[in-house]
């Protein structure tokens, strides 16, 4: 089983940039969540708003990696109108996850907590760590220290392998 998979959706590139930085630090596989019918410009922006506010999950293209093959899955989303993005919502609804999870998001200024709560509800479990970054932090490139703290939290929550059970020997009786 491989160690870490990072799945993310990114419309403007901010979440992609964070996902790529995390993948480098964690030596993780990356899988971008892509919608079947992406829309650009103002029409695309309006559709993002409607889908996010109405909790409508768009159709997704198949991913390249199977999350069930990983010990840890990090899920990244932009925050749209104080909500998880609709492609990430759709992905979470389609993938039952039994492994450890962590969440990260990029946002204009707020909404990360609400997005993380929705993601935990959709996943059916709490994340081991979360990271919320503003667009300004990502644009400036000044998020390295916060990324290091997040990676440290992931490392500190790595479950220890259970010890091997003691072997019992029977004494032969004559």
What does this protein look like?
The chain has helices spanning 14-26, 41-54, 86-94, 112-123, 135-140, 144-156; strands at 2-8, 29-32, 70-80, 83-84, 100-107, 130-134. It is an alpha/beta fold and 174 residues long. Strands 1, 2, 3, 4, 5 and 6 form a 6-stranded mixed β-sheet that branches. Helix 4 (112-123) links the parallel strand 5 (100-107) and strand 6.
Q: If helices are DSSP runs of H or I spanning 4 or more residues, what is the number of helices?
A: 6
Give me the secondary-structure category.
alpha/beta
Q: How confident is the prediction overall: mean pLDDT?
A: 81
Share of helix, binned: 25-40%
Number of strand elements: 6
What attributes characterize this protein structure?
disordered C terminus, 6 helices, 174 residues, 39% helix, 6 strands, 21% strand, alpha/beta, six-stranded mixed β-sheet
State the gist of this model.
Helices cover 39% and strands 21% of the residues. The protein is α/β, with parallel strands linked by helices. The radius of gyration is 19 Å and the shape is globular.
Per-chain topology:
Layout: E1 2-8, H1 14-26, E2 29-32, H2 41-54, E3 70-80, E4 83-84, H3 86-94, E5 100-107, H4 112-123, E6 130-134, H5 135-140, H6 144-156
Parallel strand pairs: 1-2, 1-3, 3-5, 5-6
Antiparallel strand pairs: 3-4
